[in-house]
Amino acid sequence: MDSKVKVTADKSGNVIIISGNNAEYGHIRVEQTRMEIDDQGFAKRKNISALIPGTIDTLKGFGWTANQEVEGKIRIVEQLNPFNTKDPERDHKIAGKSGIVCCQDGQPIYRKHFFSFDITKADVHEAHNNDEDIKEAYAALKEDSAAGIEPNEDFNL
Asked: Coil, helix or strand for 134?
């Protein structure tokens, strides 16, 4: 079962984080633990977060406090068009620790998390088909990791 959405705060205890570019705007960060089942049928818990942007006055209107649980859901939305046209690489869907951008027919997939009060809204996923690139990247990571391990004196035969 998915956990409730929890409001977070920064190290100073601020729930509303003021934008560095314009003091009239900011965001609230929320997080949720979701239950997922991967493509191989394996169940796992996954912590996800989302930013709720808005004007400072509007965000204050929520009246939320640090660690407060709120009704709602963090949705995962994937699409083939960038969410941010000024910085499209910001929201690339990356295949785990491989560093490879997930693509569909050579086109990058973009992924972003959104908070919604509507818990019935479904996630939106785009299937990637650059599996070979991802497998090669993981194989290279595995080789690099194995090459860096050397036995110490006690185990050197």
From this structure: helix
Q: What is the CA radius of gyration of the chain?
A: 20
User: Domain ranges in the chain?
Assistant: 1-71, 75-149
Per-residue pLDDT of 12-59, as tens digits, reads: 999 999 998 899 999 999 999 999 887 788 999 999 999 999 999 999
Residue for token digits 């620790």? 97
DSSP codes of every residue in 78-104: EESS-S-SSSGGGGB-B-GGG-PBPEE
Of the pLDDT bands very low, low, confident and very high (cuts 50, 70, 90), residue 100 is confident
Instruction: Return d(Cα 132, Cα 89) in angstroms, integer.
Output: 21
